[in-house]
Specification:
Layout: H1 2-15, H2 19-50, H3 55-64, H4 74-79, H5 84-93, H6 99-128, H7 130-135, H8 138-165, H9 168-191, H10 196-207, H11 212-238
């Protein structure tokens, strides 16, 4: 319990220092998720309307959903261009808080980001796709969203591991490899005649929140955060941040 309190304290001090910072984070999220949501929403509408299993539709969702776990602000964008992760961890190590609280803080940050960004992103998808509203009533669409959020949590656990346990250069290499793997998965599924978007939508449409898909994916996401978190913590304790 003390670890959770320490994690919340770190998160609040980092993200909620001033009202203006909160406004900036929300505004940045609206812009970024608006861009992703508009583009992906048009693609979703076309796929559901034509039932055409195009590979690009899977690739967009597979690539975009994990990005919902980022807090979009100028500081986060600088992370992607330099090794600021290591510098931040080096500073946090000087504070009287355990590594477990630092890791927990990062995981909580991702969960909150999924709540905010997911609301914007998936809300836009539903608003921009009449066929989604027709094919997926609210309960079925919620199941669809939860299933993809579960997938996003799995990939986010990998992001967090490389962010905290490796150098900025290794983090960049891992992200490039991950993007290539996502493209490969989307291509393999498409060439086999399948489509993850249509498949998940069909399962959720038929059974709604009673479908095992959303709960199975959320369980996979939670398990991935837990297991990858343990590995990350072991590496973080031994990592030289000098």
């Amino acid at each position: 319990m003390s670890t959770m309190r320490e994690a919340w304290f770190l998160l609040k001090s980092e993200m909620m220092g001033t009202r203006m910072r909160i406004i900036k984070v929300v505004a940045f999220s609206l812009v970024m998720m608006g861009y992703f949501g508009l583009f992906t929403g048009v693609m979703l509408q076309e796929r559901l309307k034509d039932q055409d299993p195009m590979i690009i539709a899977d690739y967009l969702l597979l690539l975009t959903v994990p990005m919902l776990g980022f807090v979009y602000c100028r500081r986060s964008l600088r992370y992607w261009g330099s090794d600021v992760y290591t510098k931040t961890l080096s500073y946090l190590r000087t504070l009287p808080v355990p590594s477990k609280a630092v890791l927990c803080k990062r995981q909580l940050q991702s969960l909150l980001a999924f709540c905010l960004n997911g609301l914007i992103f998936f809300g836009l998808l539903y608003a921009l796709s009449p066929d989604a509203r027709h094919s997926l009533p609210p309960a079925a669409y919620l199941a669809f969203v939860l299933a993809w959020i579960g997938y996003g949590l799995v990939i986010t656990s990998v992001f967090i591991h490389f962010e905290m346990a490796h150098s900025g250069r290794m983090y960049f290499v891992a992200m490039v490899v991950l993007v290539a793997l996502i493209a490969g998965v989307a291509g393999a599924v498409g060439l086999s005649g399948g489509n993850l978007l249509l498949f998940s939508a069909r399962l959720c449409r038929d059974r709604g929140l009673a479908s095992p898909l959303p709960w199975g994916m959320l369980s996979a996401g939670a398990a991935s955060l837990l297991l990858m978190g343990r590995w990350t913590l072991q590496r973080l304790k031994r990592r030289d941040l000098a």
